[in-house]
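Recall that a protein's primary structure is simply its ordered list of amino acids. Everything else, from secondary elements to tertiary packing, is in principle encoded there. The following example makes that idea concrete.
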Amino acid sequence: MQGLLLVDKPSGWTSFDVVNYVRKMVATVEGKKPKNTKVGHTGTLDPLATGLLVLLIGKEYTRRAGEFSKLDKTYEVIARLGQTSTTGDEEGVKTPVSDTAPAERAVREALERFRGQIEQVPPQYSAVKINGQRAYDLARKGKIAELEPRNVYIDCIELTNYDYPDASFACDVSSGTYIRSLVEDIGAALGTGAYTIQLRRTKVGTFDIKSAVTVAAINRDNLSELLLTF
């Protein structure tokens, strides 16, 4: 069994949870043990995030992971202004920064400042490896990782709704962009602080969430029919 599987990841599942679920199903169909079944993904989504997860099924496709992971991505985001979060999302400890509501024009102008090539530092709670350890593992132990800034590209960023303290926006970004860091930087630019309360990935390259299936819709009988080949 070889191909790509487009999955709409539910909130609360890690990307590995989805991979593991599908791997067991592929193994059953092929009559193999899960450990002998090749299934991977092309870009992690945070556990609280939802949306498009591109899975690679079979050796021919898992060996092309680097090719697919470099694709640009599109997200729909809701940022909450006025506070920061230790994790950059709902799970962290919140710290009030400001109770002043910025004007909508100020929010639009702040977003516009991040269009184009920018430098950003990955979140402390990220999968970046520091001397062989994940940054989020260090953060959970109370250790601050020294994360190097990286250049990313924001092709498009547009406010879609503003009802203080929540600002919704859509963005097209290069591979490697951390949306939680982007939201934090926007909050800093506004002087209000901000963290991500909702994140949904809708596109990976030319792959669209409209073509994805939910985890519940995948079964042994239709799995092979759901696979895309390139």
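The helical segments are 15-30, 59-62, 65-69, 104-112, 135-140, 179-190, 223-226. The first helix runs from residue 15 to 30.
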